[in-house]
Amino acid sequence: MTQGPYCPLIQAAAQAWSGAFDEEGRPHGQGTLTYPPPPPPGPAVEEGSSNMTGGSYEGAYAAGARQGKGTMTYPGGGRFEGAWAAGARSGFGTYWYPGGDIYQGGWRAGRRHGEGAQHCAALEAQYIGEWADGRFVQGRLVLKDGASLAIGATPAPLVYRSAAGLAQTGQVVYSLCLWKALTT
């Protein structure tokens, strides 16, 4: 592991980079960036901070930013594997959340975007459809037994379709997982 003598990002956070540097002393190419352990009892800092503690990134860098394919392991137990651009999740990737939920699909500027599916461990169900700027826009909720619920982009009656093909129109009581999918 190397401390970049000309890389203020790495020196400021006492991060260790195992890989090559560009002419300006920034991580470049394949390598591993390991963040220092969190100081007790302070909380770990998540994505987007140069003060992140307790995590690591293994993959490609360009001009000091995560770029291309890579894996980020977060201090709280989350993990992302997939494409990066300008230091943010961008393109196709999979995020494993600490509580057991999994999102697989498109990302843009660090947020869920495009086609994707989120498996909700607590519900044993999946939200499959379109995401925009981190929020679930439209698609369907597929339950463990194969039944599905259509969720539209505009307020409209929801259509529940059982595994046997029977349809019912009505309202839905939002689950915590759906609330997270719609609002984060």
TrEMBL record:
Is Repeat among the key words of this record?
Answer: yes
- What SUPFAM superfamilies does the annotation carry? Histone H3 K4-specific methyltransferase SET7/9 N-terminal domain
Keywords, A to Z?
Answer: Repeat
**Which SMART domains is this protein grouped with?**
MORN
Span list, region Disordered: 22-53
Annotated InterPro entries: MORN
Is Repeat found in the keyword set? yes
Could you identify this protein by its name? Uncharacterized protein
